[in-house]
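Put briefly, the fold is written as integer tokens. One such record reads:
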Amino acid sequence: MVKNSPFSARPAAAFILSLSLLAAPALAQAVKEDSVILQPDKVKDDAPVVAAQIEMPNWSEDNATALLSFIEKVGDEGLFAKDYNPDGLAAAILGGDQARLDKTATDTFLLLATHLRDGRTPNAARKQWFMVDSDGDSEPLISLLTAALGAGRVKETLATLDPVHPDFAALKTSLKKAKTPAEANAIRVNMERWRWMPRALGERYVVSNVPEYLTRVVHGGTIIATHKAVVGKASTATPQLNPMATGIIVNPTWTLPRSIINEGIGATIANNPASARRQGYTWTGKGKTLSVVQQPGANNALGVMKMEMLNEHAIYLHDTPSKGAFNAAARAFSHGCIRTERALHFSGLMAVMFAGRSPEEFGEAIASGKTTRFGFDQPFPVYVAYWTVIPDGKGGVKKLADIYGRDAPVVASFSQPGRPTATIIAPAPPEVVPTVTTVRTTTPGTSGIY
């Protein structure tokens, strides 16, 4: 569990990296870095639809009543009791029909557990959300249900599905204190986003909260660094994803995307190649086959470092020579990638703590001006998140600007059916094989036993 909240606590002094290196030069502010590759939203829900045929679990009245009791208070979880058929479950408990109780309670439990574990919001309302949530592998619903019924711990089992991060707990507490429906919905939206992520974020990770314009490094459950971030502007919005970071590259080259070649550098290469070379550009081909790479140096759009994060969106954390952007309060200026303040400190921290290099080795690599990769001994996730309500550090929460307008679709989904869950199918009865009576006759000299 993270000891210091990424949104409310001061970074712990678990590690201090001392660098006696020159800061990257502050140059012109019109630098463009690699552009995000926009991907279509996921619109198909990936919750399980049909479970394998199994024996229908047997529900005692006590277990079913515990489930109903949890549903009656599920508003505290940011969910809605009406979604989980409380009237039908109550009627099944009182009806005396065991088969009906087993079916009703099982379907209700699985739907509720799906929403607690993975979120209620359909994929179509999760705009530009591409994080991979592995909770379905670690918390399979059928096993969860079987264990809960066997131990008589239905309520306790459902409660274990909450995200373990203290920021989720802070939102849950604040939901009870919400003064208006709008305030409550804003909190619910962000509780949902926590559920769309892995329940536990890991022992070490980097997290960038886009609406907060901040990136934090967490190691051993403690924040060890906080950096201002510049994120994508509305037209090239930063998507939400959690790729694995595999290394840090210092003095990186920059391979220009076609869109940026077409915007100007292609014409400069054609009309004034000497100027393009002075800016560090090298190229092959021409026209539509033109391929351009900017070499390391003071003009390089990626500055002194780039974090290696393999993903189809071409999103990564990197430096920038445009330092002035970090002075703005709202920092949505990039083409989708995340520019990182104090990049020497950030990359040095990565190289020393996660790649096992010494500060001297890192300093020498920076000073050489040559592209150097420091591979991480154990890759770790980078969470590019989108929380618009966060702890305020004073026991409450604060609202951030919804810079991409991604809250409204989630709020709208609250009045619609949520994601589906597994449908348990009772095992088909065995095929009835008709009994055929065969009449045999005996012949002389035989016993009549066949």
